[in-house]
Amino acid sequence: MGSVTSRRVYHHGDLRRALLDGVLALFAERGRFDFTMRELARAAGVTHNAPYRHFKDRWALLDALAAEGFEELRMRYLEAAALHARRARDPRARVVKMGVAYVGFAADHPNHFRLMFLRPLEGASPELGEAARATFAVLREAISDAAAAGYLRSGVAEDDVALTAWSLVHGIASLVVGGQLRRGALTARIAEIFAGGAFVRGKAPAGR
Hints:
The protein is mainly alpha-helical.
């Protein structure tokens, strides 16, 4: 599964989706994002100028796909948080569940995952920047909730914990996508080890 969306056969009025899916199909085949807009137009069966009605250039198309990936990841974060909320109140466990969701997204959509980090956000489209920041904000909120409940270790900044959590699960996800690590219980165990280092054990301190 390399695409966040289902594959669709192009028909009139659906060219934008056909172009996005076409890029992912080419990447799955080649392992590179070295396509041309003319090549995509030919594959979709339209004139070579038609793709420019939706995307001004190749990077605009790639940014749109990356934004899709971040939005899907954000939804998985929210689903993991909602599922956790129905079972427990410990915000540390919510962070762990979100880490597992991150790796699951990468394993399910490896092509999208690679594309999301193809280039720095500086210079990318506003749409991509907004999607990436909104996704990170969900993780940041979970860290803040843990801190507010008194679980964050003394002297540890919330931003540092959020960045460390992201870096950790991104590394795991990259290993899974690259075939060096199997997706499974180990993901949750590593996330729990992280939580044990960043958060205090036991109940929240009194008065917090």
